[in-house]
Every structure is written in structure tokens, then in C-alpha cells.
Amino acid sequence: MTPINPLQMLVSALNNGHDPRALMGQMIGQNPQVAQAMKLIQGKSPAELQQIAQNMARERGTTVEQIAQSLGIRM
């Protein structure tokens, strides 16, 4: 069985009209990487978050748009 990607879980929660905060709280408690990511994004402006996402995607040889498309998100 393939493990469920936390990002896909959040996207699914949003697409189904659920509040993802409870899911995020659960993931923070279970995964130190999620806790680290939350610390990274806290207090950042939308422009700063966009730049972080673009940099992370570029480091992995992709784009934010390609990642969104693979998750079924229209931009």
C-alpha cells in the first residue's frame, strides 16, 4: 500500500470543504517535518510564501505550477 502524501491529504480536505486546521494539528504531532514546515511559514506574507515555494520547487527541478497540476489543482 502506498503511503498517503500529507499534501494530498490537505488538498483533499480543502476540496471537500473541510477545515484543514485539525488535520494540520494532527500531522504536526505525528511528523517533525510538518512542525518544521509550519515554523517556516508562520508570519510570512503571501509574497514571501510564494517565493519560498518557487525556490523549493526550483531546487527540485520543477515548478509550482507543475506540482499543482500533479495534485489536480488549477492555478
Features:
75 residues, mainly alpha, 2 domains, 0% strand
Describe this protein's structure.
Helix content is 68%, strand content 0%. The relative contact order is 0.10. The model has no long low-confidence stretch (mean pLDDT 82). With 75 residues, the chain is mainly α. It folds into 2 domains: 1-42, no CATH class; 44-75, no CATH class.
Question: Can I get a quick summary?
Answer:
With 75 residues, the chain is an all-alpha fold.
Please give the domain count: 2
- Span between N and C termini? 30 Å
Residue fraction in strands: under 5%
Average pLDDT confidence is: 82
Q: How much helical structure, as a percent, in the residues?
A: 55-70%
H and E string: HHHHH
Uncertain spans? none
Question: In one word, what is the shape?
Answer: globular
Radius of gyration: 13 Å
Total count of strands: 0
Oligomer: single chain
Number of helices: 5
> Main beta sheet: strand number and arrangement?
none
Structural class, from helix and strand content?
mainly alpha
How would the blueprint of this fold be written?
Blueprint: H1 6-15, H2 21-30, H3 32-41, H4 46-59, H5 64-70
